[in-house]
Amino acid sequence: MRAIIDNIECQRDSPRFRQVLEENEKDLDILESKLEKVVKQCNQMVAAGKQFNQEQEQLIHTLWDCAGYFSDDSSVQAALNRMLSALREAAKYHVILVDQAARAVTKNLSSFIKNELHKVKDLRHYFEKVSGDMDSVLHRASSVSRTRTQDVNDINNLVIATRRAFRHTAVDYVHAMSIAQGKKRHEVVGALLSYLKAYSTFYHQGTDLCDDLKPSLEKISEEVNLMRQEVSDLDKNMENRHTDVTDKDLVLSVDQLDNSQPVTMYGYLFKRTTNAFKSWNRRYFTLQNNQLVYRKRSGVRKSVRNSGGSNLLNSGLTRSNEGEEVTVMEEDLRLCTVKAAVDVDRRFCFEVVSPFKCHMLQAESEESYNSWISALQRGIGQALQLSSHENSFTFGNDAPSPSPNPPKGLGATTTPGDSNNSSPATTPQASTAHKAHLWQELMSIPGNDLCCDCGASNPRWASINLGVTLCIECSGIHRSLGVHYSKVRSLTLDAWEPEMVKLMHDLGNSVINRIYLATYVPGESSGPPAAKPDSQRSVREDWIKVKYVERRYVKPLPTASELENNSHQQRTWGIPRRPRHSRAPRVSKSSSGSLDASLSSVGDTHDQEESHSEITNMSPEAGTPLADVLLLDIDIQSPTRDAQEILETSDDYSTDDRNPSYVKEESLSSLYPDMVLYRASEADNLGMISYSLALEANKNWHNPDDNGQTPLHQAVASCSVRSVQHLLINGAKVNEQDYSGRTPLHLAALKSNIGQVCLFLKHRVDLNIKR
Questions:
Q1: How many C-beta neighbours within 10 Å does residue 221 have?
Q2: Measured between alpha carbons, how far is 75 from 4 in angstroms, rounded to an integer?
Q3: Residue of 140, 333, 495, 708 with fewest CB within 10 Å of its CB?
């Protein structure tokens, strides 16, 4: 290959030289234009290839996700995984091909255009400039007079220098153009060759991949044919599908239930809502694992809700076997009872009653109704038996003893919301020790070591509004009465607030039995027999209903005629205030023949030690007898040493400095249950509060002679947290206002009683009420 023109012709700057330069310049301009189009198109192809690779990668990810759907079908998932792995490998080859195209075509040709063709253009501009300078110098030299020797010498020197520069530039320009013309051949051919080699490698790798995949593809093809055949066989088997359709209600019948297996029940029920409309919604219910849950038949999955009450611990967000989120109606069947609904016009209705709520349900047929009633009763029984069996290992003869340094205060469990607790969260072992300690302390209260109703030993349950301990069988009866009569809580499973522990220490089985069995005489009183530890459920139920619902054995207040018949007639009555953390002072009957106790001693049905409760005469000073004051009182046992520490560390009575034996005297004409409750709340006399509640006193009665205040207002005035808690847990309304518009919260805030304020906030007091 030769240069486009020889050097001698370049130095002569002949027309032929100029013509050759012009032809080659046009040729290189055309080549540059075409190569730029190739580079541009290749860039577009590479961008499209990268987009294709991204979309293909996204497709593979989507197919992997789809393969996860068949996780329970190993054959389908294995086939999909094998093919997707091959597809991903082929996608890698596509990525390499696109990358090679960018290198072979775009990079190489762009480099040739930049390094060679643009260099020729730059030299062309310089060559034309030098050529113009030489023409200008030659014109000047031609016009110099020969007589001017100095000018002739100068112009000759300039001509020589300019000609030398022109000739060097012309040689360089021809060299660059010759090199560009030579390189254009192998640059273009080499770029296309590299691109085809990339294609050859791509197809070669693809062929090897397909050869390796061929046995697997054949096997997968056979499996696909087998799947098609299975679907075809299924279609034939279901040709007579309509013959299995029945008009019967498909429910789990009672005779199919196995006593040795956990109770499981499922089916549709109508559920009555708790809103004002009382509408009925059809839901799919499931009874299993000691829980009653339900979910909608269809629809988007929603958040789990707990309709069993806000006081349930670990309210139980759960899922069904199919992974659907469900609504927990009742977290623990041990706290529930089931009974027929007789006050509803709709057919096949029954109620599931818990300490926090009453659920109204309706079955779709009588068979379904009977099956659900039976299943729920059996489920509750199994849950209670399981709990009793577990507790026998935890709190039996080998009950765990409290830690060497037990926490100060009974039942003071660590909760996230306890602002007074600075220690870290208790461990399960510490929590168990606390509950064991709580159980042991509550059992030390007189009468609490036996069930309040049947006398069974080691009770594990309590009625928090009554202040008594119960066995597991009697606790089930109490739950069925409804929370307006009894609110049941476990002594060993539930967490106990400090104020509830204090309340249990101030009451107890002996005190409550002296109230509810005041007139009961074993063997002489009419009515059902007293329950015993081995009594049937029906006997327990009759006894508990007579005792707490009918209140048949509660002694009424003395009437005016009874007071007149006494040897000494009192003109006023009053209730002694409870002393601070010590046993109430007792005064025996006066020697002048004072009134006999209106709450006489109760013969204990369980051969317990007899204790006597009296209405005594006592003066506000030093316990001297008062001849004209009828004092109403229920004796309460003094707290144990550990309980005493709780009472002393609380803010109970923290702002009260009145005389502990202070008595508010009232006229005998006002001796009725509402006023007794009112004065008992003022005197912080928990025994008399319980007695007045047993007499069915109005918990929200407004005293017209005392600015319309309620017993809860008076309990606040007594500066006692326990009296406030006792009234609230028995249904006193927290937002009642007196005639001045003050709520109990207003009074507690004015007295700066933090314990009472916190208690009202816990019971969701309305903070927006203004005077």
A1: 11
A2: 72
A3: 140
